[in-house]
């Protein structure tokens, strides 16, 4: 899992009371459309790409890219469902908010440890 850019963290630190969605974007290095996809899945767990695309009024290929990014960040999981008539579909499930918050805490803790190491490595 990668964190957001250092510039994003700097911007976030300048905000007195950042909204949860902004913190989520910053910590995970995701874009607003990826965040909207995650929040749509929180409302519609088990959705398919087509269902999410319809809900967000976005192209399926764009939704697929958002889902790939969210999966890389451990914010969603994909489950393959076998269809009765043969074939399969993928359904997507969001990481619950409490678990996402833990992932965010872990990422910020690692970032802070990196900053502390940089501070300690400065020579006078």
UniProtKB/TrEMBL annotation:
Gene3D superfamilies linked: Winged helix-like DNA-binding domain superfamily/Winged helix DNA-binding domain
InterPro entries membership: ArsR-like_HTH, Tscrpt_reg_TrmB_N, WH-like_DNA-bd_sf, WH_DNA-bd_sf
Extent of the signal sequence: none
Domain Transcription regulator TrmB N-terminal residues, every copy: 24-90
Protein's recorded name: Predicted transcriptional regulator
Species whose genome carries this gene: Halorubrum vacuolatum (Natronobacterium vacuolatum)
